Structure formats: structure tokens, C-alpha cells
């Protein structure tokens, strides 16, 4: 098991899972599903891959619209929630427990996406390997949507060293350190709920818009469209993040 996979298996547990499941409500999920359906240009009944699917909210939204979904995540806890919720809604979704770079398919899917700022813990080589694996899994002409909050033009102008965020019944502390030598954001997290405390650490590799798009093209994607969010406004300096859409060459 790679160091990234080992980190991810231990990170996506406990209060982090509970926090993320509470953080994203139905209106936001509906907006994202609408945007994914639009930018991926899915044909009726298309086969779609969700990498880092978490609790499966996008998978279920797209499956309800008639698409064939495969949801992949490394977290046992996230997948347990996803399977349970899909079963309650009688949605025939395929679930896979794998690291992000472990995509065994060849030209299998009409579209793919990785959203929720899910590239944390991937260094340059791992990010490149992930993009290459997605490109292999897509049919020629298939489209891939990926979001990333660690884009220099978005992150650095407003970076805070320390801030608290209340999410449901959890109080969430983030402490940031920008490592300019490694080009990454080092993060320490503290989760507090009813007197219980959990601490975790992680990092996100920071890319300029240009460098991130270049990694996609080098992985086998053609043109890359850049938006500021799932609301599909034009990308610009200071926006919340990058929502990129790339076409398999």
C-alpha cells in the first residue's frame, strides 16, 4: 500500500466523515449534479465514474436521472453510508473500495468526475498518475470534471493561518502553513464534538491554473475548460477554486 493510500484510509474516518456528511445539503448537491450532467455531456444511460465518491450523494443524484454509476472511494465508513443510502432509494450503483489511482478500467466510461476538493494527500507524481488512470478509464471523447481549491490564484490571496468552522454538531479548526519550497499547503485539523476531540493532518499540493491544466493535457486530455465553481462562472483571480472540465483525447 502506498503512503498516500495509508494516509487516506486513516484520515477519512471518524468525525471527518460525520462532518462531511453534514456539510453538503440537498440544494448544493442538486446544483452540482445539474452542473456535472451539463458539462460531461452525457448520453442517455451513460456509464459514469465518481472517484472519491464519499457518501455517494452525486452518484445517487445522477443514478436517479438514468445514468449507470460506479462510485469509488478508499474509505470504509464513507462507502458504508453510500451503500446504505443507495439501497434505501433502490438505486443500482456499483461501489468499489480502491485508492484513487487504482482504476483498472480501459475505455469503459462515458464520463468521470472527482469533486469535493478530493485531491488532498496527492503529491505531483500521484496527481499525474491519477489523471492518467482517469484518461485510460474514459472512452475517447469522454469528459472529466475535477475541482480543486488548492489553486494558487484562488488560495494564496486570502489564505488564513487559523480559523474555526461550525458544521452541524462539530466544531472544526483548520491551521494552515504554506510550504513554498514544496509548493504545498500543510494542514492540521481539530474536530470537537460534545467534549470529544480528534486531530488529523494532511496536505494539498498547490498549482497555478496553468500548471494544473498542463497536468491534465499531459495525462491524455485535450482541451480544458476552467470555471470558478460548479455554478460555472468564468475562472478568475480570487475565485473560490477551480472547476475544470477536460476531454479525453
Main traits of this protein?
7-stranded mixed β-sheet; about 250 residues; Rossmann fold; N-terminal domain of TfIIb; 2 domains; alpha/beta; 4-stranded antiparallel β-sheet; globular
What is the CATH superfamily label of the largest domain?
Vaccinia Virus protein VP39
Mean pLDDT: 96
Please identify the top-level CATH class of the largest domain. Answer: Alpha Beta
Unreliable stretches covering 5 or more consecutive residues: none
Radius of gyration: 17 Å
- How many individual helices? 8
- Oligomer state equals single chain
How would you sum up the global shape?
globular
How many domains, in number, for the residues? 2
Topology:
Elements: H1 3-11, H2 14-23, H3 26-40, E1 47-51, H4 57-63, E2 68-73, H5 76-88, E3 94-97, E4 109-114, H6 124-137, E5 138-148, H7 152-155, E6 162-167, E7 170-179, E8 184-193, E9 196-205, H8 209-218, E10 221-227, E11 242-248
Helix pairs in contact: 3-4
Q: What do these coordinates show?
A:
By secondary structure, this protein is α/β, with parallel strands linked by helices. It has 2 domains: 3-149 and 207-248, Rossmann fold, CATH 3.40.50.150; 154-203, N-terminal domain of TfIIb (Single Sheet), CATH 2.20.25. It is 33% helix and 33% strand. It has helices at 3-11, 14-23, 26-40, 57-63, 76-88, 124-137, 152-155, 209-218, and strands at 47-51, 68-73, 94-97, 109-114, 138-148, 162-167, 170-179, 184-193, 196-205, 221-227, 242-248. Strand 7 and strand 8 (184-193) form a beta hairpin. The mean pLDDT is 96.
Amino acid at each position: 500500500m502506498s503512503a498516500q493510500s495509508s494516509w487516506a484510509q486513516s484520515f477519512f474516518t471518524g468525525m471527518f466523515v460525520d462532518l462531511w456528511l453534514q456539510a453538503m445539503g440537498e440544494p448544493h448537491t442538486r446544483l452540482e449534479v445539474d452542473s456535472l450532467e451539463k458539462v460531461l455531456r452525457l448520453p442517455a444511460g451513460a456509464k459514469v465514474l465518481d472517484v472519491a465518491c464519499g457518501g455517494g450523494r452525486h452518484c445517487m443524484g445522477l443514478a436517479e436521472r438514468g445514468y449507470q454509476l460506479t462510485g469509488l472511494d478508499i474509505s470504509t465508513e464513507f462507502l458504508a453510508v453510500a451503500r446504505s443510502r443507495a439501497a434505501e432509494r433502490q438505486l443500482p450503483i456499483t461501489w468499489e473500495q480502491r485508492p484513487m489511482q487504482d482504476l483498472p478500467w480501459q475505455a469503459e466510461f462515458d464520463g468521470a468526475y472527482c469533486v469535493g476538493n478530493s485531491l488532498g494527500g496527492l503529491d505531483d507524481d500521484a496527481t499525474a498518475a491519477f489523471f492518467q488512470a482517469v484518461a485510460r478509464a474514459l472512452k475517447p471523447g469522454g469528459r472529466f470534471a475535477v475541482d480543486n481549491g488548492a489553486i494558487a490564484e484562488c488560495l494564496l490571496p486570502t489564505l488564513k493561518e487559523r480559523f474555526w468552522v461550525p458544521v452541524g454538531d462539530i466544531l472544526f479548526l483548520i491551521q494552515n502553513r504554506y510550504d513554498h519550497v514544496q509548493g504545498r499547503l500543510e494542514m492540521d485539523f481539530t474536530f470537537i464534538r460534545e467534549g470529544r476531540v480528534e486531530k488529523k493532518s494532511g496536505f494539498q499540493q498547490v498549482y497555478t491554473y496553468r500548471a494544473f491544466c498542463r497536468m491534465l493535457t499531459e495525462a491524455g486530455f485535450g482541451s480544458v475548460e476552467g470555471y470558478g465553481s460548479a455554478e460555472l462562472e468564468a475562472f478568475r483571480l480570487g475565485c473560490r477554486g477551480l472547476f475544470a472540465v477536460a476531454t479525453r483525447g
